[in-house]
Amino acid sequence: MNNFEDIISGKICPYCNCETELVSSKEIYGPDSTYGSNHYRCKKNPDHYVGTYKNSTPPNKSLGRLADKELREWKMKGHGEFDPLHKAPNPHFENSKSAYQWLSKEMNIEINYTHFGMFTIEQCQQAIALCQQLKKNQNTKNSTSE
Ligand SMILES: [Zn+2]
């Protein structure tokens, strides 16, 4: 039952190795939540959950593996380092696709599995280090060319 595809599709909880259930975001964030998309939540521990893509085909496609509080924080840190690489004001990559292709190659992970939602804590940390290194190299380049 515990295989990689089941984990990254949100079908089973990688911490408890148990089944998950689909719940509304209001059950995760409270009745005032306007987040909109559903979440897969662990049947044993309500602190293990992951969101789904809005308007996906088929519906309720998981963003990745279920996360606990610690992994959620690492995923946020990861996006915090990675997203500016392909976003204004000074993007290093033309678009998110080329940024993910770079990350995929650097981490030696298939592009389909190169997503923070699918990463473990160790992979988030690896991605963060790569992003920081890239920025550092870029800064060195900029300062020597001035
Ligand atoms: Zn769990």
Bound compounds: zinc ion
Strand arrangement across the biggest beta sheet: 1-2-3
Radius of gyration: 17 Å
Number of distinct helices: 5
Q: Using DSSP, what is the number of strands?
A: 3
Uncertain runs:
none
Main beta-sheet strand count, sense and barrel state: 3 strands, antiparallel
Oligomeric state of the chains?
Answer: single chain
Mean pLDDT: 93
Overall helicity: 40-55%
Structural class: mainly alpha
Strand composition percent: 5-15%
Task: Give, in order, the helices and strands.
Answer: HEHEEHHH
Number of domains: 2
Write up what this structure looks like:
The protein contains five helices and three strands; from the N terminus they run αβαββααα. It is mostly helical and 146 residues long. It has two domains: 4-51, no CATH class; 69-145, no CATH class. The chain has a three-stranded antiparallel sheet with strand order 1-2-3. Bound molecules: zinc ion (ZN). Zinc ion is lined by residues 13, 15-16, 42, 44-45, 48. Zinc ion binds at residues 13, 15-16, 42, 44-45, 48.
